[in-house]
Amino acid sequence: NRSVADLRRALTPQGICAVAGFTSLTGLLQIALWGSWGGQPVSSFLAHPNQADLEMIAELLASGKVRSVIDRRYPLAETADAIRYLETGRARGKVIIAVAQDDHSRDD
Description:
Elements: H1 4-10, E1 17-20, H2 25-37, E2 42-45, H3 51-63, E3 70-75, H4 79-87, E4 94-98
Parallel strand pairs: 1-2, 3-4
């Protein structure tokens, strides 16, 4: 739920902003207008994931070419807490539900 200004500041001069999903009509309109005045390319899309695309995304993440912003991680048993947190609108990145227990569960 980052603002368009936040997205622009996060990009390198050669960066490209790709947006999947919108939380508001205002956000959609801001992204649509950005392409005409921002100077850096932006694209939006609706995701229809398939195995080949997910494998390509996994490779991009593993290589460091794409970075995901993770706000918090919750263990599976605390999924209700994760949903409540998302509903507050304060998440500034992805909220992860860890299905398998690991050392990264419940990062606040």
